Amino acid sequence: MFKEQVIMALESLGANKFRSLLTMLGIIIGAGTLVAVLSLGNSLQGQVFEQFIDLGTRRIAVGPGDPKAKGARDIPGYGLLSVQDYATLERVVNERPDLFRTIAPEVAVSTEVRAGTVAVKALLVGTTDQYRLVQSVPMEYGRFLTPEDEAAGSRVGVLGSQIAEDLFGTDPAALQAAIGRVIEINGQPLEVIGIIRQNGGPYATDGRVFAPVSAVRLRLVGNLDIPGRGMQMTGILIGIQSEQVVDAAEAVISSALRSTRQVPEGAINDFRLDLPTQALSVLSGINGAITGFIAVVAGISLVVGGIGIMNIMLVAVTERTREIGVRKALGASDGDVLGQFVLEALAISLVGSLIGVGGAIGLVTLISSVAGIAAGISWIGVGLALVFASAIGIGFGFYPARRAAMLLPIEALRYE
């Protein structure tokens, strides 16, 4: 009996192809939108995450502790970072390659940079070649620092895009010609070896000048040492292997620093760890909210499609009143009639959702090939589209089906 009802439902769809297609339109749009949004949303989220990673979210930044924090100890130089801390963390990085990729120092000093008669304020950052392995440093012209620069304490510098434009102008030819020119920092000469492409954002380098940390300490700035602890550092950047090891990496870093800095049990950390998880969670929340909003719009489209199904099924019940009367006169029960019309509504909804899913898969594939986005089909979205469409078909088809089932045979046969 069920098989016969399914065949009759499909035959009913075929008998009025154009009307059935118009009825399915809302379901087609809703199901297709749901699958396309979830598929493209997941891939775009992955790409945005990768861009954030390129900017430096796959790293932990160690900074000085706040001397005014509640629980801070009253000791000289509380919270300051030194080369001793760097040596401790460098050892930890080498011992745990499963957690860490590399480490880079930061010795930052606000200073004046001069090229001829033009002078601008900039942040001079002493670091090593490992810096670009921790954070993205896209070079526009020239090169970044090398181990040889650090070993020799070379007076060389890499300019952020804003500093380069302030000193040499915005003309690309002038910027390219700046490579090899000598600028002054605190009256000391510095040869420009590279200019970084503009990369605004939370870890922007636009207003910075990078130089070997050895040159910053010995030749450009002067005494940066903490009595008894060696060179003072503004920050220490540690590259981690992935976002999944953030918690483990944080625990290892905290334990090592608390031990070497002799932080008593129960005392607060006299250093600060900036983790990437907050930025990533905010990004994920924004992406989820946008995807959810569009998915809700797709759901509304499905509901509108359900209203269309109800409307056309009510018309179908009116048109087939005599047919219903004949079937009941020949022995069909109320349940048989109810099931027949619910199946027809379900068939309209399912066929429409399958068309929408097929269209969405084609659209996602096309966008992937044209835009170069590695977008995979969200099979969860496909499942949700089919389940929602089925529920809407049954839900909105039940009232017309029940109305058909409640018709009295004698009244139905008499209907013109």
Number of structural domains: 2
**Strand arrangement, major sheet:** 3-4-9-6-8-7
Computed over alpha carbons, the radius of gyration is 34 Å
DSSP summary, beta strand count: 13
Mean pLDDT over all positions:
81
Note the total helix count. Answer: 14
Question: Ends: how far apart?
Answer: 28 Å
Instruction: Indicate the overall shape.
Output: elongated
Helicity, in percent?
55-70%
**N to C succession of SSEs:** HHEEHEEHEHEHHEEEHEEEHEHHHHH
Oligomer: single chain
Indicate the proportion of strand residues.
15-25%
Q: Structural class, judged by helices and strands?
A: alpha+beta
Largest pleated sheet: 6 strands, mixed, barrel
Give start-end ranges of low-pLDDT stretches.
Answer: none
Family: Belongs to the ABC-4 integral membrane protein family.
GO molecular function: transmembrane transporter activity
GO cellular component, one term: plasma membrane
Domain ABC3 transporter permease C-terminal: 296-405
